Amino acid sequence: MAGKNKNKALKAPSRIAADNRKARHLFHIEDEFEAGLVLQGTEVKSLRNGEANIRESYAEEKNGELWLVNAHIPEFSHGNRFNHEPRRPRKLLMHRREVSRLAGAVQRQGYTLVPLQVYFNDRGRAKVMIGLGKGKNVRDKREDVKQRDWARQKSRLMKEMG
Description:
Blueprint: E1 15-19, H1 23-26, E2 27-37, H2 41-48, E3 58-62, E4 65-69, E5 90-93, H3 96-109, E6 112-120, E7 126-135, H4 138-161
Antiparallel strand pairs: 1-6, 2-5, 2-7, 3-4, 4-5, 6-7
């Protein structure tokens, strides 16, 4: 995995708040990046409850900054008048060089920035794992299913044989 931590392996997230399991089915993820997430207080509390949904969200570049668009973090139940808007765009924190590289890939080569996970790291900070991917067509999806079935069948046969 490349990105921000090229020399060190990415650590496993300590507490996953939201997971986009369908992203790897719909996209060829070629690279993964970790980005910080700018949140309001009630958003953090909702995330800690595990109520977020990032299935339909994506990241885009505006004025040299990355934004997470269409991620749904529901209002906190005890948030009264200080609650947040559930689908507001949220700023992502990355190095400027990474942002410009990702924006160039999206513009020139037709890639998409797909959020894969929202999690809290070991220091308690909210992070987003973003994948740089190209959309799959129907044939690619069928091929993935075939490969997965064959691997499952092969492991079954190996187990039976010895």
